Amino acid sequence: MIVAITGNIGSGKTNASLLFRKAGYALLNADKIGHELYKRKDIKQKVIKTFTKEILTKEEIDRKK
If residue 46 lies in a helix (H) or strand (E), which one and from where to where? Predict the structure, then answer.
């Protein structure tokens, strides 16, 4: 079975995930993976090429921008 948990900030995604983990289910956190991918030099350069350096704050990709 595959279950996807989505929602706004403060909607309980983390708590729901913890319940699934406690029940023995494996979790894949796509948001965490996305954060890690933005740190890769090749991906960071592609994002900068697409959105210009305006996407950066202190030389790191600012997802809010």
Answer: helix 41-51
Bridge partners of 61, per DSSP, are: 56
H or E element at residue 35: helix 30-38
Closest CA to 47 of 33, 59, 30: 59
Helix (H, G, I), strand (E, B) or coil at 15: helix
Which pLDDT tens digit goes with each residue over 14-41?
Answer: 999 999 999 999 999 988 999 999 999 9
- Determine the pLDDT at residue 63: 87
Binning the chain into helix, strand and coil, the percentages to the nearest 5 are 50, 5, 45
* 10-39: b (≥16 Cβ within 10 Å) or e: eeeeeeeeeeeeeeeeeeeeeeeeeeeeee
